[in-house]
Each structure stands twice: as structure tokens, then as C-alpha cells.
Design goal:
This protein has about 240 residues and is an alpha/beta fold. It is built from 5 helices and 14 strands. Helix content is about 15%, strand content about 20%. Strands 1-4-6-8-9-10-11-12-13-14 form a 10-stranded parallel beta sheet, with no helix packed on it.
Length: about 240
Amino acid sequence: MKKLLFIIVICYSCKFSNQEIESRNYATCIDSLMKYKKSVERLTLNNSEIPFLNYNLKDFENLKEVNLNNVVYTDKKNFISFLLSLKSLEKLKIDDSDFFEEICTLEIKELSIVYKSEVRWHDCLDNLSTLATLSLIGEKLEPEVNINSPFLKSLILSVDSLVAIPEFVYKLKNLERLNLSNTNLKFVSAEISNLKNLKSISVSTTPYEMSEWNHFKADRNYFLFKDIRENCKDCFIYTNIHNY
């Protein structure tokens, strides 16, 4: 049997094509999904309604990645139980922070979440000690947020209200990649020198980048991104500015 690598739920009819199961109605494909349950590694649900799952979903022993986008849950508690039963799960992308209390009990390597600012999901972030990659997408980052994963190497903070690098970031000693693009970042503190393993930082589409560009246009000898270059000499800077 060929190994089924991923499942994508994107359209109306259920069919098999190039190792993909395509459907917007999850229920119509669940039987086909169960047929390949032993070999499924990646599950992506887009614009779907997930009914109560009365199957033995613990049989998904090789499922390593779950991506949930704009999903409606008929029985959310039931689906959370499904997630918690996935012993091989390594990557999770979710757009509902109501799950966060349970998610924080998972031992996963990659987590991406689009969150609601009114939900206190950040209370358990410090429990995610196995994370290597974390992406937080939202409007506001609460000051109580604390992340102290010893294995965290990649951090994406796509937060509209972010004007400076949060203090907890400077404590992530193993961090290698920091993405602050599409935020309201206005400056980079010299504390970035604390991140001895940092290899790249992205400041694209931020007020900080725009300010640097305006200074450069006024004076072509202006030392672009001086705060970063002097305090993170080996960092590659991802930016929309290319003429320097």
C-alpha cells in the first residue's frame, strides 16, 4: 500500500487524487480516511464542519501534523480528545485559542495559533517545553506572556500591537530565527545581544523598517539597522530594503 502523506479538505466532493482526499464535508470522507488511518501523516481541514467523531481515532498512530483553518466543531470536547490521543503529533496549526488550555498539555515541536486577545491562553505557554517553532498571530500580546522553552529555535510574532521586542524573547538562549514582520515594531533594543545563537531577524513591513528607509533616502551614508548590526553581528536581516 502506498503511504498516504496528507489529507486536504477543500472542496465539495469526496475523491482520491494524487494521494489527497478532498472534501468540504468531513463526514463524507471519514470512512475513506479511516481506511488509511495507519499511514496518514498529515491532516489539513479547511472551511469544514467536524461532526462528533465516533470512530477509534487513536488508530492514527502515525499522524504527525494537523492543520485546522476556519473549522466549525459540532462537539469541540470530542475533537480535543482526538488531538490529545495523537501520540505521534509534532506539528499543530489552529485558529481557535479556546483550545489552548488543552493544547498546552501536548508535547509537540511546532505550534502555530491565531488567537483571540480576550482569551487567557498565555497562562499555560510556559508548559510547552518541547517546542522548537512557535508562531503567534493576533492583535495583542499580553504583558503576562512568558515563554521559556529550552528548545525553541524559531519564533514568529505577528502581533499588530507589538512596538518592541517582548522581554521574554531575550531569555530564549537557543533562539536562532526571530520574525517580527507585519507588526508595529518601532525599534530594536541592544538587549538583542543576549541572543547569542540568533542567526536571522525579520523586520519587514514595520515602522522600524520604514524609519530606517527614510533615513537612508535622506543620507545614503546612513548606517542601516545599526541597532541590529552592532548587537547581532552574525544576524541576517530580512527586510524589504534591498538597495544598500
